[in-house]
Amino acid sequence: MSDRLFIFDTTLRDGEQVPGCQLNTIEKIQVAKQLEALGVDVIEAGFPVSSPGDFNSVIEISKAVTWPTICALTRAVEHDIDVAVEALQYAKHRRIHTGIGTSDPHIKYKFNSTREQIIERAVAAVKYAKRYCEDVEFYAEDAGRTDNEYLARVIEAVVKAGATVCNIPDTTGYCLPQEFGAKIQYLMEHVDGLSSGKAILSTHCHNDLGMATANTMAGVLAGARQAEVTINGIGERAGNTSLEEVAMILKCHKGIGIDTNINTQRIYPTSRLVSSLMNMPVQPNKAIVGRNAFAHSSGIHQDGVLKNVATYEIMDPKDVGIDDNSIVLTARSGHAALKHRLQVLGIELSDEALDKTYEAFLRLADQKKEITDDDILMLAGADRTAAHAIKLDYLQVTTGKGVRSVAAIGLNISGERFEASASGNGPVDAAIKALKIIIRRKMTLKEFTIQAISKGSDDVGKVHMQVEYDGHVYYGFGANTDIVTASVEAYIDCINKFKKN
Ligand code: KIV
Ligand code: ZN
Predict the structure, then answer these.
(1) pLDDT tens digits, residue range 2-37?
(2) What does the DSSP 8-state code read for residue 5?
(3) Residue 97: beta bridge partners?
(4) What CATH class does 6-277 carry?
(5) Cα(171) to centroid of ligand 2, in Å?
(6) Each residue of 125-180: pLDDT tens digit?
(7) Which ligand 1 atom sits nearest the alpha carbon of residue 206?
(8) Number of the ligand closest to the Cα of 172
(9) What are the residue boundaries of the structural domains of the chain, listed by start?
């Protein structure tokens, strides 16, 4: 059996389904190019029939990327496949990913169908896709809860129909690692065409019980040769298996004898780019890419690491692209240095956007001694609010211990200036109350997180918010060295997204 694991990245499809993480086409192209540089084998670029935006993104990513296979998702429906074929027309290497639910709850409640009819629909979809595309992947949705004997019949039928990759998703993140590994092993032993290499099995694990990576590895050890993953493990609900974990497990455990094509030194910049564009913070203790992943804080650990890093470090941070000696930009850095750093981070800006980013960079450099990669990513994304109708003009807050906070705010709404002031039990509360005096809508703050980008009291704070209005939840983001300003900007970002009734 091959000792190569193909990496199928679905950050731009399953990852992008996360509410509030939607990217525009230009941002998706940036991520796709970064994934290409990272060395992924397959990029799942979208679900073309689902929206004109997804359709267009698959077209543009196909044009922008050369080496990876571009994959488009469909249901087992001819129209979906027709639309996917059209969206993939410019891909240098293309794949259609079609499939249907195979577990009893899916067959009974979703399709009101029978096991035999589901096999017929699966085979028909694969045969139909095969007319237009040599590379067809089939997914058996909810395979994790599908009984193995029936799943083997489905997979054998679709391999016979021409599927070259069979995806075994643990859609609900329910399986235990030994159960999932046993499922893959059962299929390897009972499906004609797998051991001969006519088709390979793929894992697609969700993290609802925190076992996505463990399940993926169990599947790989049992014979799967493709892993479906996302950067930072983003994805619906608790997310998908994270690319960086699988790549680094195989790199650290050479004894397994399976390699990927991933250039691991690109992992960290890719993680930062995705987190920044999607406004999705990475938890500090996230394996491989979290802020604390390589930070030894206990005295015993620090002492050991200073004597020899091998005492407590199983991988070199440089292997994942974390370089403490990387150039830090300051107020004296020029335009060219900023452009170069942006390129290293996978961001190409037009001359006009670069000029604006450079101006913002100089303003931030006045407030902060050193500008980090995260700051630069934040600045490069700052322009996304340029088209907003409502902008924060000024904010002044008086706060402290033993006094009630008071805020005065000025908003620019489509060119007109509005002002208000209010008091509250803290600076953010006062500022938002003042904001609400101007924006008279019934809106409720549902979620509010503040995160420092890197370290230091002069650091930029990132704020993520969810505001409910008229039965919908809107996601907003703000970043500023002043966390009250960042909070108000995040709130305003939400308001700018309210659907016009
Ligand atoms: O989780 C899942 O089952 C999926 C399929 C559509 C591949 O994302
Ligand atoms: Zn999924």
Answers:
(1) 699 999 999 999 999 887 788 999 999 999 999 999
(2) P
(3) 73, 137
(4) alpha beta
(5) 6
(6) 999 999 999 999 999 999 999 999 999 999 999 999 999 999 999 999 999 999 99
(7) 1
(8) 1
(9) 6-277, 294-319, 326-383, 388-496
